[in-house]
Queue: 3 jobs
Job 1
Amino acid sequence: MITVRGVPATSIPSVLRRGAAELPRHVFICVADHYEPKWQAADIATQRARVGKWVGEYPRSVEGIADSAGRPPQHTFFYPEEEYESEHLERLSELCSRGFGAVEVHLHHDRDTSEELCRRLVCFRERLAAHGLLDKDHNGRVTYGFIHGNWALDNSHPQGRHCGVNDELTILRATGCYADFTMPSAPACCQTRMVNSIYYAIDDPIRPKSHDRGVPAAVGAPPPTEGLLMIQGPLVADWSRRKFGVLPGLENGDLQANHPPTLERWKLWLRAGVHVRGRSDWVFVKLHTHGAQENNSAMLLGTPMRNFHEAIAKWAAEHSVCKYYYVTAREMAQLVHQAELGATEPRFRVGAR
């Protein structure tokens, strides 16, 4: 496949598009953290310090900040199955129970089998539930949101690395995954043809990368019976950050110490216009980060992130037609389903779906 900086050539027009001039009425912001306390094979003291920093500093970092509904910023920790430590999850559970976010499932694996993947997901799902994390659907089943390590969802790496399971989407659905939040991956090579989209991927258990295409989520359209909900983050050209003075940079919603959130990036995220078809006045902004890394945590828990919150609050006050909301990954998926059912105004804390 021909790609340009990791984006399939067939997706380039979508990435470059300028988007609609009209502002949305409602914007939902989710920070999906690939949260890895053991990053770079850290010893237990370093792990504890990384987790302790978040538990100790996050409440203070968002003190006095609220969205259009009066709610503080939410942070969703996608915790790696292979890095499980009971004490870390207990501390994160404490933070989440105070109303600052949620924990969901992250996984790095390689040369795996369907059977082993299923076992690991079920085991980890139950471990998280035992810590008071995750929620249940209307059938009483524990469910979870998912991010694939190294972006290689459904064995999508061109060299077959970092996965090995062609029926991964089927296994995710069978073990309780309510939505995947992996994309976008650009400039990494696992990027899908679908960009700036909310859609349902139908698994082909023989071929890899079944989420390369899918059925768009739409108002009045029931979700496909075999589909897994895919909620993508923004992927647009950033002409203010040119490469070699000619090519545009790539805005992919990644929050890094050397590229913190700003009002300028906010406008690009709105331009991406990720929405449920037929409800374009609701825009979903799914961002991602690696918040356990020290340089990133210093930014996310420090002045740059606070400046961003204050900047969008001021922006929203100047654009009263637009309301913005901090949501967890699970809440974002619930809002997708509300839009599908024809809601014109968002409702929060409506229970798991």
Job 2
Amino acid sequence: MTRTIRAAAWLTMVLSAAPALAQETQFEADLRREREHIAASCGAFDIKTIGGCVYTLATASPFHVALGSLAPQNGFAFGLAFAEHYTPNEAWRLSWNADAVAAPSGAWRSGVYMKVIHTPATAGIAVRPAGSPAPVVSIGPREFPVLDIVAQTISLGTVSYFGPPDSSSQAGRAIYGERQSIVGASAAYPIGGAGRFAALRPALIGGVHGRFVNIRSASDSSVPSLEQIYDEQAAPGLTDQRAFLELREGIRFKPSALNGRLRFNYLVSAQQFRTSRETHASFNRWSLDLQHEIPLYRGVSSTGPRAFNGPDDCAQTTGSPACPPVQWSRNRQGTIALRVLLDASTTSEGNQVPFYFQPTLGGSDLNGERLLASYEDYRFRGPDRLALQESVEHVLWGPIGLYLLAEQGRVANRAGDLGFSGMASSTTVGVTLRAGGFPMVNLSFSWGGEGHHIIGAMNTGLLGGSSRPSLY
């Protein structure tokens, strides 16, 4: 273990080495500071310093070790990440992230991510006559317009398919391999104004992406390959995959109530997937994601993604790229969370939603999100999906937390077949590790209708970093 850490520290220091010049550029200065930081954290290898060295190697900038779990059944990946920032003036912030990782299974992912953040100046100081009352000002979280530009490719060797919604079964499991490339841009634009509408903290969402998917046979001889037991009717899109143009529009609301004791994150969005007419695979998707968070203690901030960060960033503010330190105090933190998730797809006559773009329930999905965790990964798959989640999480000590999660859900071929009756259910108890900006680690035990499922995973991005593009 010590040799592995020492090798990673040496490699990162070599990559961050830069010649000393009379006048450093920003990049050269960042490399020098990283080299000094690594030397200070990893200079002496003993039990007491290993934790700090690992944290530095995993979160340093501009280079750090990239690690995390790929899609379920594809293993744990290691590689290298790059993150750099540039501030041309007070109105703009630019950041670049790039990473490449590979797993022993042969699965891999590489990507380049750019963020353009507009930070307009706030209103200046106003001078008022003596004795005039001060204006009433509502102070809340400030959000900025953000443009995301992405180019990413992922290759997965094993993904399970259990059949269409009306005949899905454990005995019908088959596997396939998938490679998907995504190129495009998306934006979030907060809507200003005053009054009750502004209190909802609305933001417009939009994006355009090209998606290039290739489905291939699986190499595991112990499980049938997808094309051996399913045809085009049971797995639409199996025989022909063409390039897709994906358009997305939506609106997000993130208000709070009861002086911050109840927080909302509502997203309503629409996607249009367009491809060659010959494939009969174009479709539309409508999504509703309603998240509710109830902090158990006041003054506790969310540990979720921050829009101004790339996946390899863990900054707390737009003004500083520094990651937060690991908290070892016994501060009380906890939340109750409720979520409702609905995906509904529509097609024109003769078209079908390709199976590789259909959302799933069971274990974790292609994006690593847990939904009906007690079931096998990708257990239920269909064009339409309804899921409910209820959870309670509380810090045990320092970065270690304990959570209890209840889930219900179902998939269908038609949105009209969805409902709250006949839903599969799952219960989970788990432990989380949220250590500063280190990727979140999650270990859980789940039980439900088809047995139990133990899942251990590490996020593919730094804690506080934005999510990568969805694979469906």
Job 3
Amino acid sequence: MYQGLVFLHLVGVLVFAIAHGVSIFAAFRVRGERDPKVVAAILGLSKIAVGLLYVGLLLLGIGGLGAAWSAGTLLAPWAIASYVVLVVVLGVMYALATPYYVKVRELVGDGTAAVDPVELERMLATRRPEILAGVGAIGLLVLVWLMVYRPG
């Protein structure tokens, strides 16, 4: 059973990583576009990727929690700290990304309506992708550190 949970966890990690990569690419790529159709297409791709990202995260969580339970480490201090880090990173990234990208999607719609180019330029001139990447990278480093060194 433990091996099955570890496998589920690894499949979740793989799906999460691939989908996250698409979403990260889209976040950086969309800033260089000014054609509403292209912006809408990139954000549409990102929205699909984020949906898959959450599926991967769910698999990762089920497999990881199950494996931790099987190994008797579910309530270890380092494991609890990793849950907290994960929730904080997810919360911060959601709060920073979702409202912003919803507004950009609302502005461009499906890309066929007229969009004020000045407003589009203003919306896309952002360092949000770097901030999101920084939050994610720091969170990942902390999670890896917790899993490797298992403090406490």
